[in-house]
Design goal:
- With 124 residues, this protein is mainly beta.
- It is built from no helices and 11 strands.
- The protein has strands spanning 2-7, 10-13, 18-26, 34-39, 46-51, 57-59, 67-72, 77-82, 91-97, 113-114, 118-123.
- Strands 2, 4, 5, 6, 9, 10 and 11 form a 7-stranded mixed β-sheet that branches. Strands 1-3-8-7 form a 4-stranded antiparallel β-sheet, with no helix packed on it.
- Strand 7 and strand 8 form a beta hairpin.
- The N and C termini lie far apart (40 Å).
Length: 124
């Protein structure tokens, strides 16, 4: 079992930056993929960025060049650095992880454990 707790959300103006953190606790030894997802009310949740077990990183096209995902294994924390934020980035952001042997970083179906989310609001 593992627990995820996001933080770092808030309100910023367009062009600004935020760094989201996801603290992971519990049995972290065998975790494979870790990722960030987001959802806007009335829309489906979408993938933002993910890291696979071998370190391979993938980003959604909409955030490439602006967002950076990283992890600090010593602190059991996943990060999402978000720069050049746009109003369309406004959403509830969730981190997720899984123990599954095979997972694709941006595939939501692979993920088993999800955090409660942190709200990001970008004003124009």
């Amino acid at each position: 079992q593992v627990q995820l707790l996001e933080s770092g959300g808030g309100s910023v103006q367009a062009g600004g930056s935020l760094r989201l953190s996801c603290a992971v606790s519990g049995n972290t030894y065998s975790l494979t993929c870790m990722g960030w997802f987001r959802r806007v009310p009335g829309k489906e949740r979408e993938a933002v960025a993910g890291i696979e077990r071998d370190g391979r990183i993938n980003y959604a096209d909409s955030v490439k060049g602006r967002f950076t995902i990283s992890q600090d294994n010593a602190k059991n924390t996943l990060y999402l650095q978000m720069n050049s934020l746009k109003p369309e980035d406004s959403a509830m952001y969730y981190c997720a992880t899984t123990y599954r042997n095979y997972c694709i970083a941006l595939s939501q179906s692979a993920y088993t454990y999800w955090g409660q989310g942190t709200q990001v609001t970008v004003s124009s």
